[in-house]
């Protein structure tokens, strides 16, 4: 190491951050964790290590920044859907929905019941497939690859259903202001969805045996990355991470939207606040999501149109909502996902600001939780916080 | 007759004016949990304006120099700072800062708005109230150039160092000009006159 020559500028920049680009003594050194590391998903953390313990961590985002907020100001309202959904890849329906809900509020549209039902089903399907994606990542982090491979296969079932419904597997471009782009394909699709839900319900037991009730999971996650209620609230941590510290905050219950007020479900809460609590909260939520999908299918789609009737929709590129602003948010698997849209009366939004949940728990909270952790626990903390880098970079 | 009627009307208007003031304030704040919340906060902070937008959405307007004081009061009821949005109103020459708060106990979302001039924009940091503000302020500083006094980590955050201090989310940032300087002649596919996009 000492033979390597580090450029002077780089060394000065590192020094400004209280870091040194050479081994300080025998045991203290620096480690660049990511963005190529599999666990971090295009995210980078600079770790200052003392032996195998993390002494200090500096989050280094920006490897993904694609400037969506600036681009959204250059495009008409409906075109933005195809852009903003790329913010969070595992559940791309969430950005679509929050943007559409905010625009609906600005225009003053009451979305038809059928469209609301379809949106709710799509959101729950997105949550379920995002859980599967998370199991894949988390299982791989702690070495339980089988669970991850199963989850990837089960996610494929939702991908196929999405493809039939929307025409796209990952990026759906389906929910638009005023409703959805097309109707559900038919009863066969509903039957297939019910089959998938029932199939997964049976498979949850297998996941318990291999992952959630596994000795390895308990050994690796118990007492790792602990945060308490007050810390979580001050740092605006939301979603399963907050519920694992004992705060029963769920957007679906506290700020109800779409069909959720008519559905029955529980909000699982644990109070330990460590990685294990976060994992188990997610496990209980999967069950609740399957239960919600079942209820929605029992209810059946309400009859009626799937799009609002408005003469303005005939000339989409020149569609102009009135002046105003709105904030809409939904519960995603990562947490409270919100969008703030400002309209100045022209055919392009004046400002779109997306609130990614990882923005709050992926920077300062991560840096705090990594302090004093073992190197082997770094991916575990990252994955149990469910950090989605595009939320931060956008 | 005409002469007599005119002063009568004027007198009526003068009499009604002082009566209207309390009447206007009363319907502004409905007798709901949101209305009570706003009234309670405005009692402690008379310099602010507040109203209820709809169910679970309230709104406050606060002058920029008292924003720290107001947010400290608000943090008793609103436990979480959801985000700090900045809107660049170029024609008025002002930045609008929207502090969005969420109350976990009351389930109410609050917009706290304040306006500051675009030139040499400075704000006090609110890191001491909500530590998460550090991240949001770093973002606002990088994209809009607002200096948050007291935040130790202002600097390149998401963007590359060469993009720092260009403030790309400002409305007067010349995006095409900047891209042309970076990509040069490779950048000839873009049609500048194209304003219509079709889905």
According to CATH, the fold-level topology of chain B is Beta Polymerase, domain 2
Overall body shape of chain A: globular
Number of helices of chain B: 5
Percent in strands of chain A: 5-15%
Query: What's the CATH architecture name of the largest domain in chain A?
Result: Orthogonal Bundle
Report Rg of chain A.
Answer: 22 Å
| Helix share bin of chain B | 25-40%
- In the CATH hierarchy, the architecture of chain B is 2-Layer Sandwich
Helix content of chain A: 40-55%
Report the end-to-end length of chain A measured between terminal Cα atoms: 36 Å
Give the strand order of the largest sheet of chain A, numbering strands 1, 2, ... along the chain. Answer: 1-2-3
SSE series of chain B: HHEEHEEEEHEH
Radius of gyration of chain B: 23 Å
Average of pLDDT of chain B: 82
The chain-level structural class of chain B is alpha/beta
Structurally, the number of domains of chain A stands at: 2
Question: Which CATH first-tier class of chain B would you pick?
Answer: Alpha Beta
Poorly predicted ranges of chain B (pLDDT <50, ≥5 residues)? none
**CATH structural fold name of the largest domain in chain A:** Cytochrome-c3 Hydrogenase, chain B
Describe this structure in words.
Helices cover 46% and strands 12% of the residues of chain A. By secondary structure, chain A is of the alpha+beta class. Chain A folds into two domains: 53 residues, no CATH class; 318 residues, Cytochrome-c3 Hydrogenase, chain B (Orthogonal Bundle). In chain A, the strands form three sheets. Chain A has a three-stranded antiparallel beta sheet with strand order 1-2-3. Chain A has a three-stranded antiparallel beta sheet with strand order 6-7-8. Chain A has a two-stranded antiparallel ribbon with strand order 4-5. Chain B is α/β, with parallel strands linked by helices. Chain B has one domain: NADH:ubiquinone oxidoreductase Nqo5 subunit (Beta Polymerase, domain 2, 2-Layer Sandwich), CATH 3.30.460. Helix content of chain B is 34%, strand content 24%. Chain B starts with a helix and ends in a 16-residue tail after the last helix. At the A-B interface, strand 7 and strand 8 of A face strand 3, strand 4 and helix 4 of B.
């Amino acid at each position: 190491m000492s033979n390597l020559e580090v450029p002077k500028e780089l060394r000065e920049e590192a020094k400004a951050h209280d870091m040194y680009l050479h081994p300080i003594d025998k045991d203290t050194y620096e480690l660049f964790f990511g963005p190529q590391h599999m666990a971090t998903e295009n995210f980078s953390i600079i770790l200052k290590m003392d032996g195998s313990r993390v002494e200090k961590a500096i989050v280094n985002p920006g490897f993904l920044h694609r400037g969506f907020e600036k681009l959204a100001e250059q495009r008409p309202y409906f075109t933005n859907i195809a852009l903003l959904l790329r913010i969070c890849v595992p559940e791309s329906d969430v950005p679509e929905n929050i943007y559409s809900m905010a625009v609906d509020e600005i225009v003053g549209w009451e979305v038809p019941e059928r469209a609301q039902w379809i949106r709710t089903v799509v959101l729950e399907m997105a949550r379920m497939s995002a859980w599967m994606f998370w199991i894949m990542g988390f299982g791989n982090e702690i070495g339980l690859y089988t669970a991850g491979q199963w989850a990837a296969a089960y996610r494929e079932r939702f991908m196929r259903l999405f493809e039939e419904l929307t025409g796209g597997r990952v990026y759906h471009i389906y929910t638009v202001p005023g409703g959805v782009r097309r109707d559900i394909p038919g009863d066969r699709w509903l039957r297939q969805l019910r089959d998938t839900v029932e199939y997964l319900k049976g498979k949850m037991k297998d996941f318990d045996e291999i992952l959630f009730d596994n000795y390895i999971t308990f050994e690796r996650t118990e007492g790792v990355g602990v945060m308490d209620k007050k810390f979580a609230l001050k740092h605006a941590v939301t979603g399963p991470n907050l519920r694992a510290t004992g705060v029963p905050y769920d957007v679906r219950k506290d700020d109800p939207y779409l069909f959720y007020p008519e559905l029955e479900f529980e909000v699982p809460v644990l109070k330990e606040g460590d990685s294990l609590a976060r994992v188990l909260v997610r496990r209980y939520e999967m069950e609740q999501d399957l239960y919600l999908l079942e209820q929605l299918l029992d209810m059946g789609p309400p009859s009626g149109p799937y799009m609002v009737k408005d003469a303005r929709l005939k000339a989409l590129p020149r569609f102009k909502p009135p002046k105003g602003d709105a904030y809409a948010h939904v519960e995603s698997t990562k947490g409270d996902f919100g969008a703030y849209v400002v309209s100045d009366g022209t055919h392009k939004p004046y400002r779109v600001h997306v609130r990614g949940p990882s923005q709050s728990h992926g920077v300062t909270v991560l840096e705090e939780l990594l302090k004093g952790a073992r190197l082997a626990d770094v991916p575990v903390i990252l994955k149990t916080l469910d950090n989605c880098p595009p939320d931060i970079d956008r | 007759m005409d002469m007599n009627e005119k002063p009568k009307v004027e007198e009526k208007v003068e009499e009604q004016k002082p009566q209207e003031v309390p009447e206007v304030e009363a319907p502004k704040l409905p007798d709901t949990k949101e209305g009570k919340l706003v009234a309670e906060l405005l009692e402690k902070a008379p310099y602010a304006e507040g109203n209820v937008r709809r169910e679970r959405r309230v709104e406050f307007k606060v002058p920029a120099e008292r924003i720290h004081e107001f947010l400290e009061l608000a943090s008793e009821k609103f436990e979480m700072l959801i985000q700090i949005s900045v809107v660049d109103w170029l024609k008025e020459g002002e930045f609008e800062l929207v502090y969005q708060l969420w109350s976990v106990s009351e389930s109410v979302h609050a917009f706290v708005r304040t306006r500051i001039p675009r030139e040499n924009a400075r704000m006090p940091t609110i890191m001491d109230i909500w530590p998460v503000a550090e991240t949001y302020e770093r973002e606002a500083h990088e994209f809009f150039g607002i200096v948050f006094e007291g935040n130790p980590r202002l600097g390149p955050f998401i963007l590359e160092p060469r993009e720092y201090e260009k403030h790309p989310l400002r409305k007067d940032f010349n995006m095409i000009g900047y891209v042309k300087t970076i990509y040069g002649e490779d950048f000839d596919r873009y049609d500048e006159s194209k304003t219509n996009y079709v889905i």
